[in-house]
Amino acid sequence: MNQPAIVTAPDYPEQKRHAYRARVLPEQNFPVTLVRFNGESLTGKLIDISTGGIAMQLEQPAPSTLQLDETFHYCMVKFGDDLEFQFRVGLVYQHTNPPCLGLCYIGLDRVQERFVERLVTQLDRQARRRAASP
Questions:
Q1: Helix/strand/coil for 110
Q2: CATH number belonging to domain 21-123
Q3: How would DSSP label each residue in 84-102?
């Protein structure tokens, strides 16, 4: 059976996950847009990202019809003006205060997986530099 790794890093004293999650720094603002199969859009900002999925904080409370295991056919994260990442996700976690969602990727291709791996490394490096600076 595949056991989750335990990883330590700034802001994450202990992680019990299958994939390391890099937290987005407070000054970084990466908008996230989700579109449900009924066409309803949910917006918010990225909290963290891993090779397994993302966590986001919603701008508004989640709709009461939102269900765990729901699939979103479209999710987009914008990283600055020139870079965006689009993919499908499934809802695996929901928190109400503040309204946050945990989402796992569905069907990433190898190019998308490599993009996420590089991004996680870059965000982790930025967090470590920030933690090490006086």
A1: helix
A2: 2.40.10.220
A3: EEEEEEEEEEEETTTTEEE
